[in-house]
Design brief:
The protein has 269 residues and is of the alpha/beta class. It folds into 2 domains: 203 residues, Spore Coat Polysaccharide Biosynthesis Protein SpsA, Chain A; 34 residues. The chain is 43% helix and 20% strand.
Amino acid sequence: MLVSIIIPCFNSGQFVLEALGSCLDSTFKDFEIILVDDGSSDFRTIEVLKEISRYNSVKLIKKKNQGAASARNTGVKHSNGEFLFFLDSDNKIKSDYLEKAVHAIQRDVNIGVVYAKPFFFGFEENQESNRFEVSDFSLDSLLSRNYVDMCSLVRKKAFLEVGGFDENREIFFGEDWDLWIRMAQTGWAFHLLNEVLFYYRIRKGSLMDQVDAPKRESTLRYLGTKHGFIIHQRYRQYFRLMEKIQAKPLSFFLRIIYYKYILRKPILK
């Protein structure tokens, strides 16, 4: 088995069949599906999961509710694949996403994560229609915001190397953000498939929809404390560069042009 698709589910029975169906329609077939029920209590979800338990193509794991990070880590523990693909139970993938992602990650042993662009759907008139903008990978950009969605292909070796998802309950969102920062710090490369390859559902009642100001502040404080050193380190480098640019703007303008177009590498590592 090459890819393990891991889907955490908590009271999302009205959507999970669509998520599963999108995986089964994939042009890439060498995968297993691990659905982790994180203590669902909703009657509809329980009935849907009973039906899914009869599918030979799906490995259903039940556990008490401990959050999505715990559910994903549980799925990884039961996985057999060389690569991990994380899919939220209310989202869907395009039929060629897995095939393109596997092709990309197998070309380079240094790639730890392959990600793509989303198509946002399901939002109502009073909801934002664009949660994030996807761009080429940069650790500095990642430290300021998360633009790599959970719906990504991850090298299992890299995932285990950094210890998987942080299950601390002070993280109300962004457990993937935390994982990406740790993977980037250990030298794993990120590869962007620069096209829309999955469907991101924006809906009322989702975990992101329940993140209010206190939960957001709690999460950012926790992540800021955890990654404070690298954030401070990068800030100092940029601050010193800005001082030098202000002192000799023409000289540094020419240097930036030289690095960008001749050396084709960033002026700061």
